[in-house]
Write a structure and sequence with these properties.
This protein has a two-stranded antiparallel ribbon. It is built from eight helices and two strands. The protein has one domain. With about 180 residues, the protein is mainly alpha-helical. The protein is globular. The protein has helices at about 20-30, 35-55, 70-85, 90-100, 105, 115-135, 160-170, 175-179, and strands at about 140-145, 155-160.
C-alpha cells in the first residue's frame, strides 16, 4: 500500500518519516521471507492508521518540531512495528532502530567539545528554546537546569505524548527502548 493511500487526518497528524519507513522495512526484510514482506508492511501501515484514529489531535502536525525524524510519529510507527511483529522482534532491536533515527543529529556534533564554555552556553540556549517550543505546543513538559558557569547543564522531560500513547495502548515495556 502506498503511503499516500493511508486514511488518516493529515490536518493534525503526520506520516512517519522516510527514514523510519526505511528502517522498519529493513527489519521486516531481516525477519520475513520475500513472499511475506509486503503483507507484513501493509499490516504495519494499517495498524499505524488504527493507532492514529484515536490519538490526540493537538500535536501540531508538521508545524511541531517534535514530529520530525525520530519524534512522536516515528515512535508510534516503531511501536506499531513492535505490535505487528512482536514474535520476531525485541526491545533491543526497537532501541537500535530509534537510535538510528534520532541520534544521527548528535553524531554530527562529535567535533564539538561540549565542556567548553561557548558550547555550554549554546546548548543552554538551545535547551531553553526547546522548552519554549514545548510550552507552546503543550506536548512535552520539560525542565532545564539553571545555567551555572562551572557546573554541567541538563534538561529532563517529565511528560511526553509518546509515553501517553504507550500507556493508552499497553505498550509501556517499549518506552525504555525509545527514551
Amino acid at each position: 500500500m502506498k503511503d499516500k493511500d493511508l486514511q488518516f487526518d493529515r490536518s493534525c497528524h503526520v506520516l512517519y518519516t522516510k527514514a523510519c519507513k526505511k528502517e522498519i522495512r529493513a527489519r521486516i526484510a531481516l525477519h520475513y521471507p520475500p513472499a511475506e514482506r509486503e503483507a507484513v508492511w501493509e499490516r504495519v501501515q494499517l495498524k499505524y492508521v488504527e493507532f492514529l484514529s484515536d490519538w490526540r489531535t493537538d500535536l501540531g502536525g508538521k508545524k511541531n518540531f517534535h514530529n520530525g525524524k525520530g519524534g512522536n510519529y516515528d515512535c508510534i510507527a516503531l511501536m506499531t512495528y513492535y505490535v505487528v511483529c512482536r514474535e520476531v522482534t525485541s526491545l533491543a532491536e526497537i532501541e537500535e532502530m530509534e537510535g538510528n533515527l534520532f541520534l544521527g543529529a548528535f553524531r554530527k556534533m562529535k567535533f564539538a567539545d561540549c565542556n567548553k564554555p561557548f558550547f555550554k552556553r549554546l546548548m543552554y540556549k538551545a535547551f531553553g528554546n526547546a522548552k519554549r517550543l514545548c510550552d507552546r505546543w503543550g506536548d512535552f513538559k520539560m525542565n532545564v537546569a539553571p545555567y551555572e558557569a562551572g557546573k554541567p547543564i541538563s534538561y529532563e522531560f517529565t511528560e511526553c505524548p509518546t509515553a501517553e500513547f504507550a500507556k493508552k495502548h499497553g505498550l509501556t515495556e517499549v518506552m525504555p527502548a525509545l527514551c
